[in-house]
Amino acid sequence: MKFKRIQNKHKQGKETMIRFILKGDKGAIQFMCIDLTEININLSMAYKGFMPADLGYHAKLAQYEGQEARECDLFGKCYYDGSTTRADTPLRIWVDKGEDELWKFLEAEYEARFGNDGK
């Protein structure tokens, strides 16, 4: 499958938000975390200086009955859902195993959400 990989950072107050997006034909999977290494803060949810923020999807089509479209910086409009709780796994993969392993995880999430033909 052919995907577009997007990574960006932006300041949000004192923290830096890091966003990884795996974009395909049917939508995108995003992982977001907060970099706390630049500020002196210790949170129980943090892992090695980073805090999980979101693991979610941006779908071009509704994923369940009644799901409403919303404004989207990736597709103009999309059907979005995400979870902070689920963001812990990709955070640990990224911090412990590196970016290549994170992209593999996001590809597996994409295929689970959109199917193998969901380039």
Give a short overview.
With 119 residues, this protein is α+β, with helices and mostly antiparallel strands. 22% of the residues lie in helices and 40% in strands. The protein is built from two helices and six strands, in the order ββββββαα.
Question: Which helices and strands appear, and what pairs or packs with what?
Answer:
Layout: E1 4-12, E2 15-23, E3 27-35, E4 50-59, E5 70-72, E6 76-83, H1 88-97, H2 99-114
Helix pairs in contact: 1-2
Structure report:
The structure is a single chain. The chain is an alpha+beta fold and 119 residues long. Helices cover 22% and strands 40% of the residues. It contains two helices and six strands. The protein has helices spanning 88-97, 99-114, and strands at 4-12, 15-23, 27-35, 50-59, 70-72, 76-83. Strands 1-2-3-4-6-5 form a six-stranded antiparallel β-sheet. Strand 1 (4-12) and strand 2 (15-23) form a beta hairpin. The chain is globular and about 45 Å long.
Q: What proportion strand?
A: 35-45%
Coarse morphology:
globular
Count of discrete alpha- or pi-helical segments spanning 4 or more residues: 2
Helix/strand-derived class?
alpha+beta
Unreliable segments of 5+ consecutive residues: none
**Into which percent range does the helicity of residues fall?**
10-25%
Averaged pLDDT? 90
The number of E-state strands comes to: 6
Strand adjacency order, main sheet: 1-2-3-4-6-5
Largest beta-sheet characterization:
6 strands, antiparallel
CA distance, first residue to last residue = 5 Å
Taking all Cα atoms into account, the compactness measure Rg is 15 Å
Written as H for each helix and E for each strand, in order along the chain, the element string is EEEEEEHH
